[in-house]
Amino acid sequence: MKRILLIVGGGIAAYKACEVIRLLKKRGHAVRCVLTEGGSHFITPMTLAALSEEHVHTSLWDLKDEAEMGHIQLSREADLVVVVPATADLLARMAGGQANDLATTVLLATDKPVLAAPAMNVRMWRHAATKRNVARLRADGITVLEPDEGAMACGEYGPGRLPEPAVIVEAIDSALSRASLETIGKLAGRHAIVTAGPTHEPIDPVRYIANRSSGRQGFAVAAALAALGTRVTLVAGPVDLPTPAGVDRIDVESACEMAAAVTAALPAHIAVMVAAVADWRVEAVTQKVKKVGAPPALTLIENPDILAIVAKSPQRPALLVGFAAETENVVANAVAKRTRKDADWIVANDVSAGVFGADANHVRLVTANGVEEWPAAAKSDIAVLLADRIAAALEPS
Ligand code: C5P
Predict the structure, then answer these.
(1) pTM of the entire structure?
(2) Most buried among 182, 244, 326, 373, by the most CB within 10 A?
């Protein structure tokens, strides 16, 4: 359980803060809200109080509030401060170090990590002043998520929509699992390629062979690397997951498409191959196979091994990480795989105990120095640990 101080700003996307609270509570976190004057024109303190099951703070000048829970104590009692929606005005006041209401006073007084999810009109987002403010905040160590692109409440189209609540909550989880703020920005200027999910290998135009992979571990790795400031290209097989904030996503279906997308995305400093790529594909895919006579015999041929291709490439990343899903002899197989595939590290997981689609994972990290067993943890926590290790490994010695 972590304690989140949620500052709700004054924009139409304020109603989505309600869903963020609901998702955070579902994950067992405690949420306390500060509602700005602007925010109270869109949703009421009662809504936030009912969802958070906590008193909602609205004014710096509330004598009772200040006596019982002062603005300094609000941030002292939180593990993370989150701003949803971060309006253009709120970002500007934060960047300017202003303290002219309860929200900005708390933000100035806090020494806790701060994560802001912006939402505003597309031209406001693209305005030089907002760009300047966001750059300032990021340089100050504040995580400002990229807004979504799409239709807006004002009838326009473009970047400026609040990221989906599920994406905000993923980013919150990632920020919460980080040991310290120090790692943020450590991978700035680097490029990472992450593969995730299953591949679908067509049998005919309507049928395919697939494997059991939800893509959640790979998406969490992409999110954790992006949170450290890396440019991330996420090559994703068919999955039903939102794109993590700040990640460039390329959707593919088959192993051959994934291989082509990964090769095209090189060069990279880091490659983390989490995808459960199908080992074989059907040799000749033509028209839909009809259900007449004997069942058809499928001739399978081997798919390209993407990890091996990247390992042999003249543009081989400085750090190449593979995953190994095993049902038996987990360590021995992973150690052998590291050498055979010429990967730097292998993250091995025992999939005999229902990892597919689950929240948690139990892994071992196999490096040239040996095997480390990591405690079972949420996939997002494992991703953060791995990203931190990657940042440490790539630091100039
Ligand atoms: O040999 P195995 O499939 O167990 O290896 C797993 C590792 O290799 C994973 O990192 C997976 O993403 C990668 N892989 C790949 N292309 C394949 C098969 C596996 O990149 N065709």
Answers:
(1) 0.67
(2) 244
223 — pLDDT class (breaks 50, 70, 90): very high
- Does 324 sit in the ligand 1 pocket, CB within 6 Å? yes
Q: Which domain holds residue 99?
A: 3-179
Query: How far is Cα 319 from Cα 303, in angstroms, rounded to an integer?
Result: 23
Pair 346, 262 in one domain: yes
Q: Is 287 helix (H, G, I), strand (E, B) or coil?
A: coil
C-alpha–C-alpha distance, residues 273 and 66, integer Å: 51
154 is catalytic: yes
258 and 315 share one domain:
yes
Best mutation site among 199, 213, 302, 306 for ligand 1 pocket (most ligand atoms within 8 Å of CB): 306
**CA 363 to ligand 1 centroid distance, Å:** 16
Confirm or reject: Cβ of 91 under 6 Å from ligand 1.
Answer: no
Tens of pLDDT, residues 114-167: 999 999 999 999 999 999 999 899 878 788 888 998 888 878 898 999 999 999
CATH number at residue 285: 3.40.50.10300
**Residue 101 pLDDT:** 95
Average pLDDT over residues 286-313: 91
Q: Which ligand 1 atom is nearest residue 262's CA?
A: 20
Q: What is the pLDDT of residue 183?
A: 62
> 320 and 200, same structural domain?
yes
Burial letters 349-373, b for 16+ CB under 10 A, else e: bbbeeebeeeeebbbbbbeeeebee
**Domain count of the chain?**
2
